[in-house]
Amino acid sequence: MFDIGFSEIVLIFIVGLVVLGPTRLPSAIRTVMGWIRAVKSLATNIQDEFSEELRLQELKESIKKAEELNLKNLSSDLAEKIDDLKYSAKELEDSIKNKDVYKKETLNIDTTQQEEIKGK
Fold first, then answer.
1. Which stretches are transmembrane (predicted)?
2. In the structure, what pLDDT confidence band is assigned to residue 30 with cuts at 50, 70 and 90?
3. What pTM, to 2 d.p., does this model score?
4. Rounded to the nearest 10 degrees, what angle do helices 76-119 and 6-68 cross at?
5. Nearest to 14 by CA among 107, 6, 75
C-alpha cells in the first residue's frame, strides 16, 4: 500500500517507543490500526458502489440499444431475456437506493445518539 519495508517499520517502531514510551505505544498502535482498517473499509465500500453503478449503467445501455434496434419483433426467447435485463436493472437500482436510505438513517441515528450522550 505505502511501499514501506521492514527496516522502515523497525525505525518507526523505535521512534514511537522513544517518543511515546512503552506504556502508551500499544494503545497508539491499536488506534492507528483502527484508522487504517476504517480507511480500507471505506475504500472497499466506495469501490463496490462504483462497480455496481457501472454494471447498472451497462445494463441500461444494453436495454437502450435493444430498444433502439426494435428487437421486440424477434423471438420470444430474446424478448424474455430483454425483460430479464430490465428487471435486473430495476432491482439493482432499487437496492442501491435502499442502501443509500439505510446509510442516511444509520447516520441520523448515530448523530442523535451522540447528541444524547453529549447532553448527559
1. 6-25
2. very high
3. 0.49
4. 130
5. 6
